[in-house]
Design brief:
single chain, alpha/beta, Metallo-beta-lactamase, Chain A, eight-stranded mixed β-sheet, 18% helix, 25% strand, globular, binds zinc ion
């Protein structure tokens, strides 16, 4: 799934890459693609070609021996991550498509797993009451946390539940921001990011352009406005719905070197080589 790109990343004597790498494990909205029972073009395409499927939105961020899973909506976490393979789980918020994988994982009988989450006293269902092997820790906005070789700063977002995006930095100063689920950005988060200047950003783009401002998630117009304000070198649109996929098939959104559509299993290595920006995207 992953191979290093020449000229990027530092390799330790053990062969581990010391710089940050990010793998999009899931890039779908709550219904995913294909949507159950839907016969639209995007859903039919995803049924016949696995590479077009969109699973619950989540990502794995790695640097050296540090492996952090952002969001736990995938329901096969136990198969993907053998005991001891994750340093921590980081939650953006407690909507089911971001935490449903925890309901199975919690009954494991291995070492405890730290789960860092925004201060949402409701959580999701009985996760707090019956955490099993999960140790929940509450984060507070703009208070940075260091886990192994990565430093993470929680950034408030605008969503129907208390939600944090994350500004993530590796030990060599490479900066990546993960911003979903959200519609627009709160002013303080926007100012933080403008000053912090991430080189790469993953951004909620659930909907194609809408006639009215959406309530909970970015549409393409809002996502592009954010991209323009933050001007990162690279931006990956994620949390994508089947409507957005259909729109993308019918309208040629110019995928510039700086704005790209994330796909499940796509991996990026920071820093991304300036002369060949697309090589930052390592195939599935
Ligand atoms: Zn979501
Ligand atoms: Zn569909
Ligand atoms: Zn949500």
């Amino acid at each position: 799934m992953f191979c290093a790109v020449a000229g990027t990343g530092s390799i330790s004597s053990k062969g581990d890459c010391l710089n940050m790498r990010v793998t999009f494990l899931g890039t779908g909205d709550a219904g995913g693609v294909p949507v159950y029972g839907c016969e639209c073009k995007a859903c039919e395409r995803a049924r016949t070609d696995e590479s077009f499927r969109r699973r619950p939105c989540s990502a794995l961020v790695e640097a050296g021996n540090t492996r952090i899973l952002i969001d736990a909506g995938l329901t096969d976490l136990a198969e993907r991550f053998p005991p001891g393979s994750l340093s921590a789980i980081l939650l953006t918020h407690f909507h089911p498509d971001h935490v449903q994988g925890l309901f199975h994982l919690r009954w494991g009988i291995v070492d405890r797993i730290p789960v860092y989450a925004p201060p949402d006293s409701d959580g999701c269902a009985d996760l707090y009451k019956n955490p099993g092997l999960l140790d929940f820790y509450q984060l507070s906005k703009f208070n940075a946390l260091t886990i192994g070789e990565l430093t993470l700063t929680p950034l408030p977002l605008i969503h129907s539940k208390v939600t944090f995006g994350y500004a993530i930095e590796d030990t060599e100063g490479h900066r990546f921001a993960y911003l979903t689920d959200t519609v627009g950005l709160p002013p303080k988060t926007e100012s933080f990011l403008k000053e912090w200047m991430p080189e790469s950003v993953a951004l909620d783009c659930t909907h194609p352009p809408q006639s009215e401002t959406p309530r909970n998630h970015n549409d393409l117009a809002i996502a592009l406005t954010i991209a323009k304000k933050l001007t990162p070198a690279n931006i990956w649109l994620t949390h994508i719905s089947h409507d957005m996929d259909n729109w993308l098939s019918s309208t040629a959104l110019k995928q510039t070197k700086s704005i790209q559509i994330a796909r499940d299993s796509m991996a990026i290595q920071l820093p991304i080589a300036k002369e060949h920006p697309n090589q930052g995207c390592l195939g599935a």
